[in-house]
Amino acid sequence: MPTLPSLRPPVRGAKAVPSLQKLSLPASEAVVDCAVYVCGIRQPGRWTHAGALAEVRRRGEGFVWVGLHAPDAGQMTSVAETFGLHDLAAEDAVHAHQRPKLERYDDTLFMVVKTVTYVAHESIDTAKEIVESGEIMVFVGADFVVTVRHGEHSALGTLRASLEADPEQLALGPAAVLHRIADHVVDSYLEVADAVEGDIDALEEQIFSPRTNVDIEQIYLMKREVVEFRRAVAPLGVPLKRLVADRSTLVPKEIRRYFRDVDDHQTAVAERVAAYDEVLNTLVDAALAKVTVQQNGDMRKIAAYAAIITVPTMIAGIYGMNFEHMPELGTQYGYPVVLVVMVAICGLLWRGFRRNGWL
User: Fold this and answer.
1) How many CB atoms lie within 10 A of CB 242?
2) Which of 110, 295, 302, 356 could form a disulfide with 89 if both were Cys (CB 3.0 to 4.6 A apart)?
3) Is 339 helix (H, G, I), strand (E, B) or coil?
4) Superfamily of domain 25-291
């Protein structure tokens, strides 16, 4: 059915509201840095991603390194068309929350690594978050590297500067950038593991200290954060091992040797994180046992005081039945005698419970 034109007259002075789908920023808005490297040396000038790739292919040597931060679909499509990236990989680069992985699309490697940073806090008792994760996606081709970052703590500016200060390493090509990123991420895992270990030690000391209250919610918080940490570290082992065994021209032999060292460090961190998980399981059991013991102690105190209070309650109940002929009702000293008897019995009960550790 054809759409009828609107018969409502336009409002004077009203501005047309553009469609949200048309408000796509250019790819340059997502580009953090773009550079051309020849023989490991950064070439002077400011480049667009398309201009940098054209310059490299005109020279017939060197490579391009384009860094993006949280691009949208339109921006990533522009970059993917320029560098010939696969649609599926480009889609993964836009949508975060990917698992660490390594995929090959024709002559391009696509690797995803999870970044982790430690969230500083004054005390483990007041912490709301222990670790924060982000992602870095890396596209590696014969003459280009495209890095896509998600998260505020995953900046690569310092890493790029350190690589530019080492032209010999950078001259090995795009795979050298991939290695340095993986090495940087795994090194950050080691730092986070050390910090998390300190928090776990603090929890352990608190739980096994006598006469301390146990907040089991903090143990569950720590366990949740360790699970998030493990999801970043453990799956990375398979991509690194594949890179060590890669025999393609994209990963030279010299770089594979470096990846072997990164793989060793990743394995060590993965083992430490697995150990943290086991320790936290033990701490959960210990905390539950301690809470149970505390509850049993509280129940014994309640039962002891209830037994003590039962004596005056029973005597007062008996003499409150208002019968005319009851023993000792007419006795002159009946009232103080009953009070003394109640206090004496309650005192004996309190002493007995105290001796047995109930009070």
Assistant:
1) 18
2) 110
3) helix
4) CorA soluble domain-like (3.30.460.20)
